[in-house]
Amino acid sequence: MSDYPQEHIKPYNEEEGKAVQVEKMFDNIAPAYDNLNHMLSWGIDKIWRRKAIRCLKPFQPKRIMDVATGTGDFAIQACRMLHPEELIGTDISEGMMNVGREKVRQAGLEQYVSFAKEDCTCLSFPSERFDAVTVAFGVRNFENLDRGLQEMYRVLVPGGHLVILEFSEPTLFPVKQLYALYSKIVIPAVGKFFSKDRNAYTYLPESIKAFPQGKVMQGIIRKAGFSQVACRQLTLGICTLYFATK
Fold first, then answer.
1. Alpha-carbon span 215 to 123, nearest angstrom
2. Cα angle 200, 149, 131; round to 5
3. 42-58: b or e for each residue (b if 16 or more CB lie within 10 Å)?
């Protein structure tokens, strides 16, 4: 069993498990999620996604799973850039995936992109099922990080690739100080106003602060069995891109 600080940070209370609360939280904020995300990141999240997807281009993966797919932004962008034969977005929140299903329908990509309700720590897929697994801004919500990474390793073919995008805390002055103010004051206030769920956008900065970063996270990914684990900071350290091979 893993025991990392972010696993103990939950949106609502101490009694219920993290996965149950994360599912409830994302169901609550699903209608406002996309607009809020783009607004709070000033649209830079779209650039981060493109950079992450470009890592997979040389390998031309045909079967991709996008874990913690949410409303399917990453899945849709990956489908357009990589042209896989199949892309399955998995998540625990049906509310988020329902938004994603409508976006996929409007994009005319139903033939390639589908959604499935899955617990990332206990996937229903057989071993060696996918050429690539991606997670964009969802890995810090895992109830058990080690098990989630082990499951993603299991369902990848040998030589398959893992791409993780996750928020991180900048360390450089004055970006670190400005980011701390932004995450403590602006994100919860704007989140409460637009989504009517203050807890969700208080949980966001707290879970980022507690999440293992950089070399520590690289070590955790290696522990799950991956090799050639690399990481790269984006936008002055506000986001980190991890890339690994099975």
1. 27
2. 110
3. eeebeebbeebbebbee
